[in-house]
Amino acid sequence: MKGLIFSIIFLIIFSSQFDRNNGNVTINLNEKRQVIDGFGASTAWQGAVSDQIMNELYGTLGYSILRIRIDQHKQWNDELSNAKKALKLNAKVFATPWTAPANMKDNKQDKPGSLSSNQYSNYADYLKSFVDYFKNNSAPLYAISIINEPDIEDANLSFTPDQMKNFLKNFAGRIKSGSNIKIMAPESCGFRQDISEAILVSFFYLRNYC
């Protein structure tokens, strides 16, 4: 409840910086409208976060979700430390890659590009290796995303809707093998419906979808 109240207050204060018009807001905490899984933060590019900060976020403030980054060079120890601290405080942890290893990309570099057509299975195995690494080190993940914002300009790893559908249909099952981890479809930076529709067009794809 503390996390919910804090988030609501933050949103009200933040939005007031852009809209000076008067308005009324009524919050009825006793009337349920929808289920919210939780509120949280990300430790992407933050290194190993201290116990003090994690306890403040996931203890005092009541955060319940942590998003960690999948480093393409397999420098995963800092995020493993963050995940363990969050799990100890009963948070759900999910992971997101911003790009694939350079050898799997069409340009073979750590700069914006696409996944090579012959690397889909290797990319799935790479994501599974991350899942297994955390599971084997006492930090099981709740979910894993395929990629961060595949449609953003200069995305480190871009996916078209058809490419995303192909990956979920034919390769995402490899990530789930031997675990009950959920697969999250990536969020569109522009709220593009063609990305979500490509995934939701058939129930077949939802078998591997969170």
Automatic annotation (TrEMBL):
The keyword Lipid metabolism applies. InterPro entries: GH (IPR017853), Glyco_hydro_30 (IPR001139), Glyco_hydro_30_TIM-barrel (IPR033453), Glyco_hydro_b (IPR013780). This is Glucosylceramidase. Pfam families: Glyco_hydro_30. It comes from the Eukaryota. The keyword Glycoprotein does not apply. Belongs to the glycosyl hydrolase 30 family. Residues 1-23 form the signal peptide. It catalyses: a beta-D-glucosyl-(1<->1')-N-acylsphing-4-enine + H2O = an N-acylsphing-4-enine + D-glucose. GO terms for molecular function: glucosylceramidase activity. Residues 82-174 form the Glycosyl hydrolase family 30 TIM-barrel domain. Its EC number is 3.2.1.45. One of its GO terms (biological process) is sphingolipid metabolic process. Keywords: Glycosidase, Hydrolase, Lipid metabolism, Signal, Sphingolipid metabolism. One of its GO terms (cellular component) is membrane.
